[in-house]
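Service request form, structural biology core

Requester: graduate student, group of Dr. S.
Request type: structure prediction, single chain
Budget code: on file
Notes: please return the result as structure tokens.

Sequence provided:
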Amino acid sequence: MLDGFCRTIDYIRISVTDRCNLRCRYCMPPEGITCLPMHEILSYEETIHLCRIFAELGVRKVKITGGEPFVRRNVCHLIRAIKDIPGVDSVTITTNGILALQHLKELKAIGIDGINFSLDTLDPEIFRQITGTDALSDVLKAIDAAAAIGIPNIKINCVPVQGSNTEDIPGIAAFAKNYPFHVRFIELMPIGLGKDYQSVPESDIRRILETAYGSLLPAEGTFGNGPAHYSHIDGFRGHIGFISAMSHMFCEQCNRIRLTADGQLKTCLFYEKGVNLKPLLRSHHSDEEIMHQISLALHDKPKHHDLDSLSPEHRGMSQIGG
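Core staff response, request fulfilled:
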């Protein structure tokens, strides 16, 4: 499956809900958002139907996201069904970790191909300030348990924010020292409430890490489905990754599309432009017609994001599928 610039699109991030049990201040206001009514959200059967179409078109890797995916009931049923689709090679999930513990054994039995845990700090007070909850211990228990039962490809995602959690960067990176995890530092993107905060550029994160641990060496190999590039630190069991959409634009290598919880196919995170697949499903259009609309949307996938665009995405990350 190719877009209009001949980039191979083989990875889709599927949001199953816009709801979340955290109120991370760069993502969602303390009072929350007006969530979609359930009848507007794709059913699991509709999502599986679309996954079959995407797999037929060439998608091989699927990431389940939210909001927080574990706030939706029976999400493991969806994961199992997607893993059974011919052509799908990898199904992974990203979570804030608070509800993950109760699902880990089932995910292991299903054969989940990886879990990404979001974790911005190891300080309980800063965690409360960022997320609005006191649930740091639940996240850490879930991470330890996932490692203990042998969940593959565990990653820790951290979003450093100026004036908030930069002092936590070495501590978060230490997960890659003590475990065979990959720790990724993600530059905050100016989407939704993220526009009100200042990101920490990759160059600053590298400087902090090298001060704490020594040189970051280029890491050879592929360690995930998306745009992260990786470095290695001597003595570390895992690698350190960087997802730097702001300081190191990676659009030329973009291989992804997104499906929001209400059926919007987004071809670029920064733009509203795409196609609404839900009406096509619910009015019983043929798979061929849905494929045609997907192809048209892919042909119009932007070459790169432009922060001065006249049609930027106005929704927050939880509504898009972060």
